[in-house]
Structure formats: structure tokens, C-alpha cells
């Protein structure tokens, strides 16, 4: 079975975007691949995190992975900071990365271009850590959004560089880029990605939002004055975003939804999307509450950490031998 790895940062409350764009896919992938899914808390601290919130978000992320359908019998779920080989190989990868290639990574480039201050060195070097995350497990595939594709390209370059210099060590991973339509946008600014760290809570549906509040957010989503329900992201980003949300949650094609709403108004359409979101969150949160109450999350992480550590330890000791760290 081919191996696949992915992770999510506990950098805020998980959104419907994280579910539709990532977790929902992990649930599909767990049957096709030997899947490793981690909580990327080393990546989360590349920007400042409040201690209490980080702890809560981490716990919630584990419980939500499970509530969304990840099955610990099929997938290894672990906490990145508990598998210290990530930090260690991350450093080795940093020492194999050139300043120029890291400077070309969009996240860093965008932030510096905007003149943001307080950019940490960690934010600059995190693509090297991401390479370590992937290479430790010999992952064949890494599911990424289009904006993250360049990080997998960097990982490939670093792995090839290392293999050339020290001999065959790492599997060269391939990015799996999701099909168009998987990206969910802010309900208040539908040209901007729905994000955990979004400051305007009206634009974001959090997976732990009160379902009736989430329905209200859908009802007040920004649309347009054209009055036609059709998929046209350029001219009708708000309606197109709601179409993507509905289609992702109810499994109906966008085309079929558009046909059903021919000649109908936005109010009726939003009502259906709102109800779908309400029902989805109600079911999800029921499972989440049961998982939290059962203490299952802790057990899953304990076992996942052990399994991941075993693999990572073996890989790292091979790397250290190749470099010349193991002297006796
Ligand atoms: N709006 C979205 N639509 C589709 N997919 C999304 N993802 C995030 N937002 C959307 C996917 O969820 C995973 C989260 O990965 P991450 O936490 O490492 O990073 P991110 O992409 O930076 O996520 P956020 O929610 O935007 O977090 P912040 O605000 O902290 O930066 C990825 O697979 C991503 O594609």
C-alpha cells in the first residue's frame, strides 16, 4: 500500500473549509493509503499562540479528526511535538536548504511583500520542517492545496539533494492536488479563503459553532445583485461558494443544484444551504461530544505517537549514520 501523510495546524478553531478541503479527503484516503495524519503544532507556533487556546485547539483537532470519520485502526494520528524526530530532521533539512529557495516560498514572500513585521525565523524555515515531516515516513503522496504545492517541490529537491550527497535515503514524494472547487471562501469576503485565523467570525463557519449560529452566518453571507443561482466564481463568488458548500455536504452535483434553483431566489437557496450546514454540524458535534467524554482522544494520540515514533526513529538513525553523526 502506498503511503500518504498530511497534517493540520492547531492554529485556531477548525473551519468548514478545513473539513471540506482536507479532513473529508483524509477520510477517503484512509481506505486507499497507509495514512499518517498529524497535528502540526510545531508549525502552529511559527506565529504566536496563546497557551490555553493552543491546548484547547489541539485537543479539539484530535477529537474532530475522529468525529469527522478518521478511524485510528486505519490511520496513524499523532502529535508532531511528541515525535521529536520531526524537529531533529527539520534542522538537518534546514541545513540542506538554501536561503534563496526558502525566500521563494509564497507564504514568506507574501508576508514580507505586505511589509508585515514580527515574521519569525520559524516562518521562514517551516518548509524545511515540512520536508522533514514528509520524508520521515517515506510518504509517496502528500495531499496539498495548490498554494502548498511548491512545498512538496522543495521537499523533492531536498530529498534528491540528500540522496545524491549521502546515498539513497529518502523516497521522493509526489503532491496530490485537489480538484478545483475544494476551496471554501469567507462568507463575508468570498474572494478570501475561509481560515482558522480569520478575525471576522461572521465570515467563518467553525466546526464547533452553535449550529443555529452557523445557519445565521449562511443567511447573512455576502452575495450579489444578479439574482441568478449559477456557478460563476469570477462574477458571483458568494453564490459559487455557497454552491460548493452545499454540493460538498450533500453530495449533489453543482449542476443539479443549479437546475433545481432555476428561476428561484437567493433566500430560498440560502435556507437550504443553512439547513444543510445546521444538520451537518449537529451530527458532527454529537460525535465530538461523545469522543471528548470518552477520553478516547488521549488514547488514540498515545498509540499514534508510539507508532509514528517507531518509524521516525528508524529513519532518523539512518540519516544520522549517513551524515556521520554516529561515531561509535
Ligand atoms: N478555506 C479552505 N478551503 C479548502 N481547504 C482549506 N484548508 C484550509 N482552509 C481551507 C485546508 O485545510 C488544511 C489546513 O492546513 P493548515 O492548518 O496546515 O493550514 P492552512 O491552509 O493555513 O489552514 P487555515 O485554516 O487557513 O489556517 P491558518 O489560518 O492558521 O493559516 C490544508 O490541507 C488546507 O489546504
Describe the structure.
The structure is a single chain. The chain has 13 helices and five strands. The protein has helices spanning 16-32, 41-44, 51-67, 85-95, 99-103, 106-113, 121-135, 149-166, 211-219, 237-250, 254-260, 266-294, 296-323, and strands spanning 3-8, 34-39, 75-79, 141-144, 174-177. A three-stranded parallel β-sheet has the order 1-2-3. Strands 4-5 form a two-stranded parallel ribbon. Helix 3 (51-67) crosses helix 13 (296-323). The longest helix has 29 residues, at 266-294. Bound molecules: adenosine-5'-tetraphosphate (AQP). Adenosine-5'-tetraphosphate is lined by residues 8-9, 11-12, 15, 17-18, 20-22, 40, 145, 182-184, 193-197.
Profile the largest sheet.
3 strands, parallel
Cα end-to-end separation: 36 Å
| Order of strands, widest sheet | 1-2-3
Rg value: 21 Å
- Assign the structural class, choosing from mainly alpha, mainly beta, alpha/beta, alpha+beta, or little secondary structure: mainly alpha
Topology of this protein?
Layout: E1 3-8, H1 16-32, E2 34-39, H2 41-44, H3 51-67, E3 75-79, H4 85-95, H5 99-103, H6 106-113, H7 121-135, E4 141-144, H8 149-166, E5 174-177, H9 211-219, H10 237-250, H11 254-260, H12 266-294, H13 296-323
Parallel strand pairs: 1-2, 2-3, 4-5
Bound molecules: adenosine-5'-tetraphosphate.
Question: What structural keywords apply?
Answer:
Tyrosyl-Transfer RNA Synthetase, globular, mainly alpha, Rossmann fold, binds adenosine-5'-tetraphosphate, 3-stranded parallel β-sheet, 328 residues, two-stranded parallel sheet
Amino acid at each position: 500500500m502506498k503511503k500518504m501523510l498530511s497534517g493540520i495546524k492547531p492554529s485556531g478553531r477548525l473551519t468548514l473549509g478545513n473539513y471540506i478541503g482536507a479532513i473529508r479527503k483524509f477520510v477517503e484516503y484512509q481506505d486507499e493509503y497507509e495514512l499518517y495524519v498529524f497535528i502540526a503544532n510545531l508549525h502552529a507556533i511559527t506565529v504566536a499562540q496563546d497557551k490555553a487556546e493552543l491546548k484547547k485547539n489541539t485537543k479539539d483537532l484530535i477529537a474532530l479528526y475522529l468525529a469527522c470519520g478518521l478511524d485510528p485502526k486505519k490511520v496513524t494520528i499523532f502529535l508532531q511535538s511528541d515525535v521529536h524526530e520531526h524537529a531533529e530532521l527539520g534542522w538537518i533539512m534546514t541545513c540542506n536548504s538554501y536561503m534563496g529557495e526558502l525566500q521563494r516560498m509564497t507564504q514568506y514572500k507574501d508576508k514580507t511583500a505586505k511589509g508585515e513585521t514580527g515574521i519569525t525565523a520559524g516562518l521562514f524555515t517551516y518548509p524545511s520542517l515540512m520536508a522533514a515531516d514528509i520524508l520521515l515516513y517515506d510518504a509517496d503522496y502528500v495531499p496539498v492545496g495548490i498554494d502548498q504545492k511548491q512545498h512538496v517541490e522543495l521537499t523533492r529537491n531536498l530529498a534528491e539533494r540528500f540522496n545524491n550527497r549521502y546515498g539513497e535515503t529518502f523516497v521522493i514524494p509526489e503532491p496530490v492536488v485537489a480538484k478545483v472547487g475544494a476551496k471554501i471562501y469567507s462568507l463575508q469576503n468570498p474572494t478570501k479563503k475561509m481560515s482558522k485565523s480569520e478575525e471576522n467570525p461572521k465570515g467563518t463557519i467553525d466546526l464547533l459553532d452553535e449550529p443555529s449560529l452557523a445557519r445565521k452566518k449562511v443567511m447573512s453571507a455576502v452575495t450579489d445583485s444578479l439574482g441568478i443561482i449559477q456557478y460563476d466564481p469570477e462574477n458571483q463568488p458568494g453564490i459559487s461558494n455557497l454552491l460548493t458548500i452545499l454540493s460538498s455536504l450533500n453530495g449533489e452535483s453543482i449542476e443539479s443544484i443549479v437546475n433545481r434553483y432555476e428561476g428561484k431566489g437567493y433566500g430560498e437557496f440560502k435556507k437550504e444551504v443553512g439547513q444543510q450546514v445546521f444538520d451537518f454540524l449537529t451530527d458532527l458535534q454529537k460525535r465530538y461530544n461523545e469522543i471528548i467524554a470518552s477520553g478516547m482522544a488521549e488514547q488514540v494520540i498515545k498509540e499514534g505517537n508510539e507508532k509514528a515514533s517507531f518509524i521516525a526513529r528508524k529513519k532518523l538513525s539512518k540519516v544520522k549514520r549517513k551524515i556521520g553523526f554516529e561515531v561509535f
